[in-house]
Structures are given as C-alpha cells and as structure tokens.
Amino acid sequence: MTINGPAPMLLGFFMNAAIDQQCEIYIKENGLEKAVNSKIEKIYRGKQHPKYNGELPEGNNGLGLMLLGLTGDKVLPKNIYDDIKRNTIAQVRGTVQADILKEDQAQNTCIFSTEFALRLMGDVQEYFIENNIRNFYSVSISGYHIAEAGANPITQLALTLSNGFTYVEYYLSRGMDINKFGPNLSFFFSNGIDPEYAVIGRVARKIWAKAMKEKYGANARAQMLKYHIQTSGRSLHAQEIDFNDIRTTLQALYAIYDNCNSLHTNAYDEAITTPTEESVRRAMAIQLIINKELGLAKNENPIQGAFIIEELTDLVEEAVLLEFDRITERGGVLGAMETMYQRSKIQEESLYYETLKHNGKFPIIGVNTFLSSKGSPTVLPAEVIRATEEEKQLQITTLKNLHDANDTDSLLKHLQQTAVNNENIFEALMEVCKVCSLGQITKALFEVGGQYRRNM
Predict the structure, then answer these.
(1) Which domain holds residue 440?
(2) By the 8 A CB rule, do 198 and 310 touch?
(3) Residue 50: what pLDDT?
(4) Rounded Cα gap, residues 191 and 307, in angstroms
C-alpha cells in the first residue's frame, strides 16, 4: 500500500488495520468467533454496534470487518496480540510518502512545522528499525511533485537527490545506522518527453550509490536506489485528448528502458477529470502491451551503450552535481529553503515552459501545432461523486459515539507528553490511532509541534 497525506497518522491507521486483519484470521483459524463476538457485544452494550452491510468483497481473507470499530487487543489475550503484532509489522509491505521537504518546495500541503515534521519522519524510521520493519519504505523521496510544479528533469533530479541526502544526514545525526535505515528509503520520479528523462533513473542510481558507498560507508543493500516513476500529468492536454495515450506510451518506454522498479501510466482524461474505468483500462493496457507484446521489452536494458544514452548520462550527471554546488552555497537544502531558492527555481522553469508552449517554440501536436481543421471537440468531465458536509459530520459523530471520551482524552494527552519529553511519537501514535480521528490527532500535535507557516 502507498500512503500519502498526513503520513505518520495514516501509517498508524494502516499498521493497525494490517494487525487487525491478522487477528481476525487467527480468530477464524482457532474457532474463537463465538467467544470474540460475545466480548464485542459486551463492549458495545448500550451503544450502536458498527456492522458491515452487504456481502464481503470477493477474495477477502481477514479484512478486519469482524472487528469493525475495535482493535484486536480488545478481544485477544495480550501475549497473543503482541505476537500477531510483531509478526505482522515485520512482514507488511508498502510505502509511506512522508517527504516534507518536497511538500515545502513544490506541493504546498504542509501541516506541521518543518522541524516537527522531520522529527516525525525520524521517529517513524526509528520505530521501523526497533521493530524490524524491513519491507516497508518509511519515505518516498519525491521528485514527481517538483516536476509537476514546473521543474525541468535536471532540477527535479537534483532537488530530489539533495532532499534524500538531507534525510540521510538527519537520520545519522539521530544515531541511526545507515545500513538499517538505507534500505527503507525509496524514490518517486516524474517522467516526460524531454530526452533527459531517458536517463533519469541511471543517473540517480549512479550518484546515490557512489555517495552512499564512498561518503557514508553503506553496504550494498543500502546503496541500491529503488524508484517508482509515473508518466507526466503535466504533459496531458484537454485539446485532442486522445493523443494523451500516445504521449504516455512513449514516456512508459523511457521508464521501462531505464529500468524503473515500478511504473504508473496516467489515464488520458486526467487532463480534465478524475479517471474513468474505461480510461484507466487504457492506461493499464499501455503497460500490458509493452510487457506482453513488445519483443524488445524482453531485454532488460536494450539501450545501454548507445552513444546518445551514454552522452546524456554524463551530461545530466554533471548538471545535477553543479546544482548540488548551488544548493551547498546557500547552506544546504534547509538553508536554501529559507530563501525559497527551490520554489523560485521551480517557478522560473515553469514560466519558461509555459512561455515556449504559448509562443509555439515548444511544439505540442494538436495544442499549438498541427491543429485539426475540425477543431478540438470539447470534452465535458462527468460530475465527481463527493460526500456532503452532512455525511462527513455524521461519520465524525458516529466515531465519537463509538469510542470512550475518557480514553480519547487520556491518549491524546499522553501523545502530547510523549512529544514534549522527546520520546518516540510514532510509538504513541500506534495506540492513539486505535481510538482517535485524524483531526483530533492533528489538533493535539499542533499544540506541541507547531503549525506550518511559510517564509515570505
């Protein structure tokens, strides 16, 4: 599972859900349904008992729905629950995005102060190390949002890698072992049509591996840069909208020939709306056809050794290292952020791109050149179904009714005291997430960690 948004809290919710799913499997395998249901009825005596209506989803295997509104520790002996928890979190796989530096530089969805957000990231990674969570990426160091905000491929790569090295330095400053946290780091890049995108992965891996080995003395596993790449949403256009699949296909080939670890192909209609089932199937078909039908895709690295690829690799690496120098001159990543260097650079490059697009010097078929004589048909997006304010308020009220207010208050106070005492916040979050809402947790942490305010 990939988690975006308020990462530490959502990660806590997800981890508890994974544990509860395994608790339900244990209950069924050991014939404990009757005893557990009796406990659940006792807990909810005098209260509304949440139930899952309708048939269970196909292929479900312990979805935790039996424990809806509760967690496994409420119905199982402590020693059994602790064993299930330990085994589950050691095996669970996924990624939490959690990259606060790119949030400040490009995405504008910060909620806590940068210092406190970094501390939360460090607490998550420490918890991972202490609890042997090796298969879950504690951060997805993201260039995608930097590129979508306007950065060119070289700036995307330079800012993303420099952010990654900043996390390495921060985790080392907290006494963590690079060989224990290095494998928990992952990357996320945007793709595009520019030629530099054809080598973004190999340049990233080369720079990362050399630094991790020669500067930090990391082992072979920690030197490996694992990355997900997504085709560019920014390259999708409302005009001649069917052409977007062609652009996405070419970008997918760039990514696959550059040996990405995983790939997301965008739906053609994302230029105007949330993807439809039909457009998502077409996007998925791009990957399937390349994988199953394209003969050259059977070779893992068909363009290795080509002059243009070797030349581009050297040129992009050199340009990235020059950008590192500019960031270093400004006091490193955090120092540069104080003067909004990264944001300014992204905005300048975005303006440059839009200028070329509008004056036609950057040709985009069907948008500013080779226009159809019939014009581009207007595609009206379907209305997106959204919950009403009343429905969301009912959810919040129902949640409050499910949980004991005394438990909620005491857990939130303990969470705040944990933060004040400089103890591991995520460890406390794992308990708080069992009974408190995202809003309650965020409000409590605002009071001790500070709310984000941009430098202006």
Answers:
(1) 389-449
(2) no
(3) 76
(4) 21
